[in-house]
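Try this one yourself first.
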């Protein structure tokens, strides 16, 4: 369960994680302009959260020099575990990341965090949360749309694709595999409901009372 930070009216409440479907993520990303600098940046942020499982604080601390596009890896200097980590991102994030890198370079932005304002200053996690909440509503997504939800979506898709717990654990930056197992346990009910659709049970019409 995770705290909701989208508004004061939900203060103190907790919400179960709700992974997004691929169609919902596509609709979310589709709300970002492919021409404006802000849209290119926001598209890259959403794509990276979705395809790396980074925490929003980790993403906002990433510098351009920390990203290795050839190896699809990111060097994080400050993590929840308290020590530097190298984490991966899926190659499908390449295009969005490169477009934003080109955009910031064309605007004369050098150094500092990779994801920044158009003036090159730091972005806040509040901005990212509010942006996701806003465009999620514009996309017609009824689930809560927030950074940690994208992290859960990444984990759920890895799990569904057959990735081992140890691999998912490393990609999420968890301190142990049991932590990842508990993390994924939140996601099993929906998957169980989906799996039920493919289970063949006795036909009630053929069962004598």
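Now uncover the answer:
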């Amino acid at each position: 369960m995770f705290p909701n930070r989208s508004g004061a009216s939900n203060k103190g409440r907790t919400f179960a994680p709700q992974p997004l479907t691929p169609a919902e993520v596509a609709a979310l990303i589709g709300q970002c302009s492919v021409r404006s600098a802000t849209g290119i940046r926001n598209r890259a942020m959403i794509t990276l959260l979705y395809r790396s499982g980074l925490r929003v604080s980790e993403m906002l601390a990433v510098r351009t020099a920390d990203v290795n596009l050839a190896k699809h890896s990111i060097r994080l200097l400050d993590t929840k575990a308290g020590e530097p980590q190298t984490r991966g991102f899926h190659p499908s994030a390449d295009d969005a990341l490169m477009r934003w890198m080109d955009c910031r370079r064309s605007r004369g932005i050098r150094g500092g965090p990779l994801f920044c304002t158009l003036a090159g200053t730091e972005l806040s996690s509040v901005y990212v949360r509010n942006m996701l909440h806003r465009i999620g509503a514009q996309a017609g997504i009824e689930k809560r749309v927030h950074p940690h939800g994208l992290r859960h979506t990444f984990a759920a898709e890895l799990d569904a694709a057959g990735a081992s717990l140890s691999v998912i654990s490393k990609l999420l930056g968890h301190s142990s595999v049991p932590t990842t197992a508990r993390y994924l346990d939140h996601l099993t009910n929906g998957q169980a409901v989906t799996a039920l659709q493919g289970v063949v049970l006795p036909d009630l019409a053929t069962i004598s009372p």
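Discussion: The two ends are 44 Å apart (CA to CA). Confidence is low (pLDDT under 50) at residues 1-12.
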